[in-house]
Amino acid sequence: EVQLVESGGGSVQPGGSLRLSCAVSGFTFSGYWMHWARQAPGKGLVWVSRIKTDGSNTTYAESVKGRFTISRDNAKDTLYLQMNSLRAEDTAVYYCVRDDYLSYWGQGVLVTVSS
Amino acid sequence: QSALTQPASVSGSPGQSITISCTGTSSDVGTYNLVSWYQQHPGKAPKLMVYEVTKRPSGVSNRFSGSKSGNTASLTISGLQAEDEADYYCCSYAGSGTWVFGGGTKLTVL
Predict the structure, then answer these.
(1) Which of A35, A43, A97, A111 is the most exposed place for a label (fewest CB within 10 A)?
(2) A37 at the B interface (CB within 8 A)?
(3) What residues in B contact A50, CB-CB < 8 Å?
(4) Going along A10-77, which residue ranges are E strands?
């Protein structure tokens, strides 16, 4: 069974940092590109970032470019999202998503940016 | 990276058919046959319902179908059922390794 489990969320002040993790199981992690997406409370889905199978290629939404960094550890079957210079508008549930049409989603982890 | 345009809400009675539109541009929906649709129930993660415009993943009811014309993609749900009540999102590849979602449509089954 494919499983994606996010962790690392929580509350942080504006300007702060958080690192999200996504532990996967049930498929060969190293064989898939992976994404992060987010959803602000009561709002729609927003694509955030994508990373190639070996980590050599990454892309970002303009809203997070230069502040967020996606990475992966294929030996640990884990995806990461380092979030720096956080803003109130980054408050959202963050989802880890497997590529191939964004087919499998984790349950999400809440990040709250507030003073 | 502007969001794709979806109607905020649609509704229909059980057994009826409804269609949700998703309008993009020639930089995303109009160029790539990489449009997908997701169903999201409250408090749950999104679920893939249609990919590559018209294809259904294994296990998804054939009551769900997708299409595209020009810069607009559509999701049609036939034989509406109470459990179809949810939020629906379209998504398209937008080039240069980026994706864009629609704003979402709330489906109400009357």
Answers:
(1) A43
(2) yes
(3) 97-99
(4) 10-12, 18-25, 34-39, 45-51, 58-60, 68-73
Task: Identify whether the C-beta of residue B46 lies closer than 8 Å to the C-beta of residue B38.
Answer: yes
pLDDT tens-digit readout, A72-83: 999 999 999 999
Residue A34 with chain B: CB contacts under 8 Å: none
Tell me how close the Cα of A61 comes to any Cα of chain B, in angstroms. Answer: 7
Residue B59: which residues within 8 A CB-CB, separation 6 or more?
none
d(CA A68, CA A59): 10
Rounded to the nearest 5 percent, the helix, strand and coil shares of chain B are: 5, 50, 50
Residue indicated by tokens 């502007």: B2
Q: Which of B16, B1, B17, B5 is nearest to B103 (CA)?
A: B5
pLDDT in tens, B11-37: 999 999 999 999 999 999 999 999 999
